[in-house]
Design brief:
Keywords: DNA-binding, Glycerol metabolism, Transcription, Transcription regulation. Pfam families: HTH_IclR, IclR_C. The structure is a single chain. This protein is of the alpha+beta class. The chain folds into two domains: 68 residues, Arc Repressor Mutant, subunit A, CATH 1.10.10; 175 residues, Beta-Lactamase, CATH 3.30.450.40. It has nine helices and eight strands. The longest helix has 31 residues. The protein starts with 5 loop residues before the first helix and ends in a 6-residue tail after the last helix.
Amino acid sequence: MPGPVQSIERAAAILRLLAASSGRLGVGEIAASLGLARGTAHGILRTLERVGFVEQDGGSGKYQLGAALLHLGTSYLDVNELRSRAINWADALASRSGEAVRIGTLLDGKVLVVHHVFRPDDTLQAMDVGSLLPMHATALGKALLAHDANAAASIRDTVLESYCRRTITDPRELARAATRVRENGWAAEIEELSIGEAGVAAPIRGHGGLVVGAIGISGAVERVCDARRVPEPRLVAFVRDAARAVSRDLGGSRW
């Protein structure tokens, strides 16, 4: 097996040093603390600066952790808190609805599935954790899209892929669907991603009412919808109840 990469170890040491510092550090201070040549420390810092992991103060020339690294850490904590707070409610939702449950959050214009509870029966099912789903063709995605202006803007000028005959590919129609989601408090998909499949989802809110994720069910159209292909009210109520419960646990007390 190949050994450790020294430059990465040194970069990690610099990041840890900056994280532990009560203020900014200069190149000389970093080099002395880690036993590095000044030129070596400077080269690593310049690389870290280019990728946004450290920032240099224009006045003092000293360094601190950068916004990109802080965002990575916050995203990790947010996803893990969302998942840990939602696990019990997701299990309960699967039991009440009899359908598979997924929890998702936005990542690079897609829906990242961070938790998945199988449908409580003996059928063969595949784990979806880590999957990236399209925003415009899923209930989870529309629940998130309706409450995130940046997400909506990110796909406004893109070609929306068609997965089934009912997939929404017109941006104006998608905008109208997002409005309905905000008005109703929940989103639906009916044979928009997969033929024969339907889903219902509701947004999960954190502190201040910010939407941080969505929880939803998915299953066969004939189980999720009535004869008019409208989601069953009791299933919608189950999903909304679960979303409110997770939101309360995350500090979204109004919901």
